């Protein structure tokens, strides 16, 4: 028997919130990864296209910040997307040192297919939720502390 964050004793140790979130997150990720793969994309490529679909076009530096990936990782993602004609990079006319990334027509079509596939995954995952519950879940998940600044196991604050 273990206690959860509220101090309530739980019958099942694997029902702890961290374990539940990790398990459900892994399942959701695997299903999302499969949906993207059917569209010829990796999850990172899919997320990049989704971001571009929302913003229209964006600087490479801005994309790295929003996606929270190292610029060198993003460069590799963009190289792959550019090689398959899904995005294009061009110099910003206002600042030639800056690259602007935009979806191509093929990228827009691929994004639409990928969004349909992800929508199907989400409909399956959240079929038992009402719109209000989904809104609450989104709000609660936004408050889970997962940023890089939060202490993680292995830092001096755990198991000392």
Give an overview of the whole structure.
The protein is α+β, with helices and mostly antiparallel strands. Helices cover 56% and strands 14% of the residues. The chain has helices spanning 17-38, 43-55, 60-67, 71-83, 105-125, 131-142; strands spanning 2-3, 9-10, 57-59, 87-92, 95-103. The strands form 2 sheets. It has a 3-stranded antiparallel beta sheet with strand order 3-5-4. Strands 1-2 form a two-stranded antiparallel sheet.
Question: Which features would summarize this protein structure in a list?
Answer:
160 residues; alpha+beta; disordered C terminus
Strand order within the widest beta sheet: 3-5-4
Helix content: 55-70%
Distance between the termini: 22 Å
**SS-based structural class?**
alpha+beta
- Number of extended strands: 5
Cα-atom radius of gyration: 20 Å
The ordered string of helix (H) and strand (E) elements is EEHHEHHEEHH
Put the structure in a nutshell:
With 160 residues, the protein is α+β, with helices and mostly antiparallel strands. The chain is built from 6 helices and 5 strands.
């Amino acid at each position: 028997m273990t206690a959860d964050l509220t101090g309530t004793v739980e019958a099942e140790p694997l029902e702890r919130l961290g374990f539940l979130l990790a398990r459900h997150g892994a399942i959701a990720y695997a299903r999302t990864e499969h949906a993207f793969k059917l569209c010829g994309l990796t999850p990172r490529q899919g997320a990049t296209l989704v971001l571009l679909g929302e913003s229209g076009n964006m600087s490479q530096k801005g994309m790295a910040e929003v996606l929270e990936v190292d610029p060198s990782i993003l460069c590799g993602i963009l190289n792959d997307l550019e090689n398959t004609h899904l995005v294009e990079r061009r110099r910003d006319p206002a600042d030639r040192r800056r690259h602007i990334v935009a979806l191509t027509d093929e990228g827009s079509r691929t994004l639409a297919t990928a969004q349909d596939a992800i929508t199907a995954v989400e409909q399956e995952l959240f079929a038992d939720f009402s719109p209000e519950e989904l809104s609450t879940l989104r709000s609660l998940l936004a408050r889970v502390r997962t940023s890089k600044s939060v202490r993680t196991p292995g830092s001096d604050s755990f198991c000392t």
